[in-house]
Chromo domain-containing protein
Amino acid sequence: MAKKRAVKRKSESNVKSESDDEDATDYEVLKIVDVRYTKSDKREFLIRWKNYSPKQDSWEPEENLSCDELISKFLEEQEKRSKEPAKQLRKKPAVVKRFASPGHRRSKRTGSNRKNYIEAEDGDED
């Protein structure tokens, strides 16, 4: 199995070393966490480094990475995830069938039958 290595460049603010070879240090990639595309359509990967905490994850351009197997495996997994249907946030409620007729409801408070009032016609119409 090929070693998973990437070159992580030191930032410009660090003190320059005596030779250019010491500027680029090889770090071992533990896994690829995420991918993003820059405005110039270049891919950058969020890299988790071996023996470093997740707080030290960094975005690295694809050109700086030499772990082709991990990149292709990560991109395949991303493609599989995008093809899966999105999960529903909430399931549709089940339809409840009632066997009792809706006209004979019982009151929750008293337990007696519900009173139905029928309007009576006034016979005083002259």
Q: What stands out?
A: The chain is about 15% helix and 25% strand. Residues 9-22 have pLDDT under 50 and may be disordered.
